[in-house]
Amino acid sequence: MSNATTQKFKGTPGQIRNARIERAGAIVIGAIALVWILANIIKSPEQFAQVTVLGLRNGLLYALIALGYTLVYGIIELINFAHGDLFMLGTLFSSYFLSVWLKQQNSSPTGWAAFAACLLLVMVFGAVINVLIERLAYRRLRNAPRLAPLITAVGMSFLLNFIGLKWNGSTPRQWPTVIPSFDVHIFGVRINMVTIILFFIGVPLLLGLNFIVNKTKQGKAMRATAQDKDAAALMGINVNKTIAFTFALGGAMAGAAGLFYQQAIGTTNYNLGFQLGLIAFTSAVLGGIGNLWGAVVGALLIGLIQGLNDGLPIALGQQWSQSVVFTILIIILVFKPAGLLGKVTTEKV
Amino acid sequence: MSKKTSANNVTKSHRKWIIGYSIAGAFLFAVYQFLLPWQGLPGGVYDAIYQWVPPAAINESLVYVIMALGLNIVVGYAGLLDLGYVAFWAIGGYCAGWFMSEFFFFLNVHFLGSVTADRPGIHINFWLVLLIGGFICALFGILIGAPTLRLKSDYLALVTLGFGEIIPQVFFNGEDFFGYNISNGTKGIVMVDPVPVGVKNLGPFDFGWKLLIFLLLAAVMVFISLRLRSGRLGRAWLAIREDELAASMMGVPLMRTKLASYAVGAFAGGLGGVAFATHVNGVYAERFNFTISIFLLAMVVLGGMGNVWGVILGAFILSWVNGNGLTAFGTFYNDKFGTSIDFASFTFLLFGLVLILMMLFKREGLIPESRLKLMLHEEELDEVEADGKERA
User: How far apart are CA B145 and CA B262, in angstroms?
Assistant: First the structure.
């Protein structure tokens, strides 16, 4: 046997070259990022740690929203533009439920109970609205050309924006926090209690979602439908129900993110969904859209980058926050459309 | 035989529209330039026109027509979803701001400008700035398009969206862009030069004459759209829109064709941007936001993707509703029924509903393009057949 046949096939020359360019690019970007971070750590280590915590908290929020995008995209290949606005409605629902309907103004045992009830209700709220949107609009367009559901999603986003505008008013509103929000010091880093609580609720939520998708029968149906709807239908899976369930899961996560945002940041605004939705979607793409852990990793990364950029002494600053995120999006889409954890798929004819 | 007649039809229709368009344009011009200032006009008519269709609203609609026609080339002809079209508008607008105002006060460049030579800043002739703005936008269109156009359609939409967010933010923060002031930031660039038309310089309030200029620009875009569509490039666009894979197999160079659509669409964005800057007599960074991109998309979708006349109708309806119609109706309704409903806040609802309902029930738009109509309903037939409902 000649040596050539026993060698492992590593791809066509073009693929090998692309892989090399990719690796070189990654090293360059990584080196620049490292220098930047080191410079900042040396300049003010305390600020760095604080900004990192804040960035990770935002990353968790983004992760919850990004999961909705990635679930929906994974199953029907639709960028659900309305998802960010669903999150915005979640913030409004939480605000009204806690502060107006239950009149909870500060942190007390009743406030914590209200928070727990609100978490449950806002998840149901998000799920119901998302399922309704799917039922009324997207389902009818499932076999239409790609452009049609995409434009419909943009329209839906406007519609939810309108509801938010009427519900919240056109100016940002401040709301009280009902969970403990004093500062604790861990290793010299000042962390707000809200952040810690959110981590303790948010991480189990992510794990629970992962369990549903990977370990349950319904999750299996979801994965099958994502791979091939027709084949899934032939195997006795109710495709419509499975897709509706996916939307419900995504909506529930967006609702929870809405409550978290409302408690952590305290402000609501009707056009919040657009910005956060885009950031969350960027996270989903960064991690590899359709991939659950990819969305989480991407979101934490984006949250971190944004936090570092907004809060560090040597950085572009908050007014460029949006541009930084979108530049990352464009770079990722151009050079690695499959994302960090995604697999490259080729178009089948 | 059939080929010949269709070819003749194309040329005929290319000439026919000019007559109708000129008549409609002359009518509008006559109304706004001569009828409105006329002393003998009954006060009721004057008030009604000013409440419902003031000259400024008509001019603004025309600017939207120019840009919607540009977006139509990208979305309607080539089938590429562009969600960041406002970026071209912004670039075009700042071209007007840079080359037709006192913004660069430390320079003194005059080239066939409409102001006296002692004024500081760059003052280039409006018609030249139109071209400059158009070409700079086209260049940007190619720059964004070149690396991104090979992406899948929805990823492309996202990249354009990102671009449409970055460019306005650059201008928004442009007062200190790495130490240079490139846009005056939120203050905007106020006062651009009047438009020279030989005998007269048109300031911001010469609505009647400016109407003619905007009509001319829109006509140029209609002409470009119609000619390109029936030409080789236009047919290649339609082929890509209908089936990219099949088109590439037939030898259509995908990248070059898509890039061309981007460049032409961006060119129109530049024209519109310069025109809008002269219309509002300034360039303001906060005006360039995502809503505008969606607004233009809604115009194209409502009117009929790919159909020039549909897009013009859609642009007129929506920009009128947004700019004037909704508030005028609100005043009318509130006066009549003694209510105080804020109708202007219903724009979001209106645009959302337009997009959703059109996609659900009349995907081809108000004035459909025949080919697109066939295409948009083709797959639904397939589904019915696949389910076996038709045969049962």
Answer: 7
Is the distance from CB of B331 to CB of B51 less than 8 angstroms? yes
Chain B interface includes A155 (CB < 8 A):
yes
Count of A-B CB contacts under 8 Å: 128
Q: In the numeric block, which tokens belong to residue A108?
A: 């007390």
Q: Which residues of B touch A146 (CB under 8 A)?
A: 153-154
Written as six digits, the tokens of B30 are: 């006559």
Q: A131 to chain B, minimum CA–CA distance in Å? A: 16
- Does residue B104 form part of some domain? yes
Number of folded domains that form chain A = 1
Q: CA-CA distances (angstroms) from residue B104 to A22, A67, B45?
A: 42, 48, 45
Q: How many residues does chain A have?
A: 349
Instruction: Give the structural domain span for A74.
Output: 45-271
Look at chain B and report how many structural domains it folds into: 1
For residue A288, give every residue at least 6 positions away whose Cβ sits within 8 Å of its Cβ, in sequence order, or none: A294, A298, A338, A339, A340, A341, A342, A343
Which one of B353, B356, B374, B382 makes the best mutation probe of the A interface by having the most chain A beta carbons within 10 Å? B356
* Partner B contacted by A151 (CB < 8 A): yes
Is B237 within the bounds of a domain?
yes
Q: Please state, in angstroms and rounded to a whole number, the distance separating the CA atoms of residues B252 and B233.
A: 9
Asked if residue A184 belongs to a domain, the reply is yes
Extract the tokens encoding A169.
Answer: 């008013």
Residue at A29 is within a domain: no
Segments forming the whole domain that contains residue B58: 53-290
How many alpha carbons lie under 13 Å from residue B134 in its C-beta half-sphere?
19
Q: Is residue A20 part of a domain?
A: no
- Kindly give the confidence (pLDDT) of every residue in chain A, 349 residues in length, as a single tens digit, with 9 standing for 90 and above: 445 555 666 677 777 887 788 788 888 888 888 888 888 777 777 778 888 888 888 899 999 999 988 899 888 888 888 999 999 999 999 999 988 888 877 778 888 888 889 999 999 999 999 999 999 999 888 888 777 888 899 899 999 999 999 888 888 888 888 887 777 777 777 788 888 888 888 899 999 998 998 899 999 999 899 888 889 999 999 999 999 999 999 999 999 999 999 888 888 888 888 888 888 888 888 888 878 888 899 999 899 888 888 877 777 777 788 888 888 888 887 777 777 777 655 544 4
Q: How far apart are CA A110 and CA A93, in angstroms?
A: 18
The answer to whether residue B329 sits within a structural domain is no
Q: Is residue A288 part of a domain?
A: no
Element of type H or E holding B110: strand B108-111
Residue among B77, B166, B183, B321 with most chain A CBs within 10 A, to mutate = B166
Query: Is residue B249 included in any domain, yes or no?
Result: yes
- Does residue A222 come out as left (phi exceeding 0), alpha (psi in the -120 to 50 range) or beta? alpha
